[in-house]
Amino acid sequence: MAFTGVDLVQILAALLAVTFLTPLLGNYMFKVFTGQRNVVINIFRPLEVAVYKIAGIRETEEMNWKSYAKTLLIFNFLGLIFLMLLLMLQGVLPLNPENIPGVSWHLAFNTAVSFVTNTNWQAYSGENTLSYLTQMLGLGVQNFVSAATGLAVLLAIARGIVNKQSSNLGNFWVDLTRGTVHVFLPLSIIFTVILMGQGVVQNFLPYDHIKTVEGVEQVIPQGPAASQIAIKQLGSNGGGYFGVNSAHPFENPTPLSNFLQTVALLAIAAGCTYLFGLMVGSRRQGWVLFGVMMALLVTTLSVSMWSEYAFGSMEGKEVRLGVANTVVWSVFTTAASNGSVNGMLSSMTPLSGGIAMLNMMLGEVVFGGVGAGMYGILLFVILTVFLAGLMVGRTPEYLGKKIEAREITWTVVGVLAPCATILLGSALSVMVPAGLAGLGHQGPHGLSEVLYAFSSAAGNNGSAFGSLSVNTVFYNVMLGVSMLIGRFAIIIPVLIVAGSLSAKKISPPSSGTFKTDSLLFGGLLASVILIVGALTFFPALSLGPILEHLLMISQG
């Protein structure tokens, strides 16, 4: 296989489209969350007000970090319980033309946790396991509100940074409502119509049962797919209406639909960098974070692309679209905490699979999930300014807020909790028969299957090496717990840090202030992200994808 000019143009087009959309979406979200108005906001404002009235929400009421966190946790817990019940009872509920039965308790737990945490890990094939009602009322709703929850946490920490000796971080209900009504709903409507125009199915018809020329019956699935795909990509939810995600021609039928979905993987998450810059009063701060993310993305994409063209084959690739588009998707989806696929990750070269894994191990901060990538990288920002302060012998501060013991303690908790979950979960899985029974391969690739699964779960990504059989009690429970830790063991520390920073006064900059909007700081931040990811996981990666790559080379 040879890398061509057409491949390069497609890659550059996707990167440029994400860059172009960043300030547009960031500025729009800033207007939404600061109560400003424009044509789109005015159209959906009555719906926002109606939600407040029905739910009894006081739009001007503020919350401290404890109230914000408590409300967020209760809302997500109730959503988890509702979705579990819906999954187990779907067999007796309407909008189920194929009479698909309810799922087991452990699969219901895993799936409910998955969608509530914005992971969308799927241990099943959607068209064979879920009814139309479950897809829409269960998964579709969580695709909206889990993404809006990530945005809400970003808003909370941004307010904590800019506040002056205040305990208020905003109102979770207002942030959740505005994110859902003004950001995800209008964009999803537009994107759904575009996808339908490209041939993505959107109906409530029963499945078609046809006879092939060989006389074998073939089932052609139908359903409301386009609307699900729109929000799953825009909200960095991931997964897919169909089991093979965007490798299915009903979910991703044309090169244009593939390009648009690829851009959508990163668009809003990238826009969050610009939103943050506007909220803290410095676009330059946002662009520095965008630059760090983009630099890491381009680096990992380059390595993965080189590996596939130097050592890869067409196995597992999307043959309709070419090798380059499959590789770009694999890097974008693992960088964006999205998790949907348009090829088979397990069939990619060891280095390409390792790069996808590394993107998640870095903390899902290379753009990451909507909101989640930004508040995740802000923990690394705090860690970086702390280390820089130690090197120059002065109290570290970020945007005028001093970084002290309380902030560093919870920052370290937020950074290390997913790391510990990945390593401990993987270690346990390769020690017990229930974990080993799911392996599709032995040797280093078998370890990569397990390591990838826990990286995906703890990173709230949702992609997988499909060769690992995970629809078992052991993996459904273990990975479900990992998703919960990967989501809320970061959100809670972030909100604690936000509350702590909000209560502090802002110190004016001086000649000794370390600038955080410079190229130097961007380089330091990227180094800290890489060091934490690389050093923490290097031994495990050495026994998995790195060893597999060396064995592949030695065998010619």
Walk me through this protein's architecture.
The chain has 556 residues and is mainly alpha-helical. It has two domains: 24-269, no CATH class; 376-554, no CATH class. 66% of the residues lie in helices and 2% in strands. It has helices at residues 5-33, 39-55, 65-89, 105-116, 126-129, 132-162, 172-198, 225-234, 255-279, 283-311, 323-335, 350-361, 372-392, 405-429, 433-436, 443-458, 473-502, 519-554; strands at 208-211, 217-220, 397-398, 401-402. A two-stranded antiparallel ribbon has the order 1-2. Strand 1 and strand 2 (217-220) form a beta hairpin. Helix 13 packs across helix 18.
Number of strands: 4
Overall mean pLDDT score? Answer: 94
CA radius of gyration = 23 Å
- What strand line-up does the widest sheet have? 1-2
Relative helix content: 55-70%
- Number of spatially distinct domains: 2
How is the biggest beta sheet arranged?
2 strands, antiparallel
Q: Could you list some keywords that capture this structure?
A:
556 residues; two-stranded antiparallel ribbon; 2 domains; globular
